[in-house]
Amino acid sequence: MDTITQLTGWEFAALAFAACLVGFSKTAVSGVNTVSLAVFAAVLPARASTGVLLPILIAGDVLAVLTYRRHAHWPTLWRLFPAVAAGVVVGTVFLTWADDQAVRMSIGAILLLMAGVTVWRRRRAEREEEPEAVTTRAGRIKARSYGVLGGFTTMVANAGGPVMSMYLLSAGFRKLGFLGTSAFFFLIVNTSKVPFSAGLGLIDAGSLLLDAVLVLFVVPGALIGKWAVDRIDQRLFEQLVIAATVVGGLQLLLR
After folding, report:
1. In this predicted model, what pLDDT tens digit does every residue of 140-195 receive, in sequence order?
2. 131, 69, 49, 236 alpha-carbon torsion, rounded to 10°
3. DSSP states of 108-148 as a string?
4. Per-chain mean pLDDT for the chain
5. Which residues touch 214 (CB under 8 Å, ≥6 apart)?
6. How many other C-beta atoms lie within 10 A of the C-beta of residue 153?
7. CA dist., res. 43 & res. 174, Å (int)
8. What residue intervals traverse the membrane (predicted)?
9. Which residues contact residue 72 at a Cβ distance below 8 angstroms, ignoring those fewer than 6 apart?
């Protein structure tokens, strides 16, 4: 990726800030990395941005697993993985023919979709007294549906966070269980995507060189997230994230 060596100071600063947000999202508010996605796709070519961002996400996943490893719910993870694998395959097929414009438009549309999904989830959660059990037939169908969508969005745009957030919250997970389960989920899924991304040419020596620098900014973001997780005003922050996601999605669609 020749464009990586041509980054301006402001562009690198934007990517560093986005990498910091990745760390924060992994240990505090899942879904904030949709803002990082928009930043990476705005600074770098859309296809290239997914390959650069993936190792940074994995670094954040490792930190999240180290922080919340005792709180993962493995039955839920095993229920999701087959459907997610199918979604990843579909996303890989899409990336084999999609050009940069198609990927950019897809990322923008996915961001707007995820913003809408998040708003819908928050409003529905306010109306429901009890979440739907994941062991029911409807719960299993929902798990498969979210799994396929999550696999596709995470492969095409590294944007599976909001999908999985909606599923885990609707399944009744509390904060620590939510963070622990999502940490292992994304570490396994993102690691499994590396061969696909490398095979598509999205990860190469140039992208890894940039990753080696940007990954340093993930650590302070994760530490801030760990400190803030019990102090943050969740409702206000989600509103800000939704607004930023909408702006990022529109920017990509209209670019």
Report:
1. 777 788 888 888 888 887 877 777 776 776 677 777 888 899 899 999 999 999 99
2. 50
3. HHHHHHHHHHHHHHHHHHHH-SSPPPTTSHHHHHHHHHHHH
4. 82
5. 15, 16, 19, 52, 56
6. 25
7. 36
8. 51-68, 80-97, 103-120, 146-170, 208-229, 235-254
9. 177, 180, 181, 183, 184
Q: What is the DSSP-derived secondary structure letter of residue 202?
A: S
Other Cβ atoms closer than 10 A to 12: 15
**Length of the chain measured in residues:** 255
Tokens coding 177: 């269980």
User: Rounded CA gap, 112 and 107, in Å?
Assistant: 9
Through-space distance between the first and last CA atoms of the chain, rounded to whole angstroms: 21
* Angle between helix 137-157 and 100-127 (nearest 10): 150
In 78-113, which positions are buried (b, 16+ CB within 10 angstroms) versus exposed (e)?
Answer: ebbbebbeebbebbbeebeebeeeebbbbbbebbbb
The confidence score (pLDDT) of residue 7 equals: 85
161-170 and 137-157 are packed helices; what angle lies between their axes, rounded to 10 degrees?
160
Q: Which amino acid is at 128?
A: E
In order of 7, 35, 104, 107, the CA distances from 157 in angstroms are 21, 12, 9, 6
- Tell me how far CA of residue 122 lies from CA of 67, 117, 126, 170, 180, in angstroms: 26, 9, 6, 10, 21
Lookup: tokens for 121: 């989830």
Amino acid identity of residue 113, one-letter, is L
Rounded to the nearest 10 degrees, how much is the dihedral formed by the CA atoms of 92, 1, 55, 159?
-50
Q: What is the pLDDT of residues 10-44, one digit of tens each?
A: 999 999 999 999 999 898 877 677 788 889 988 99
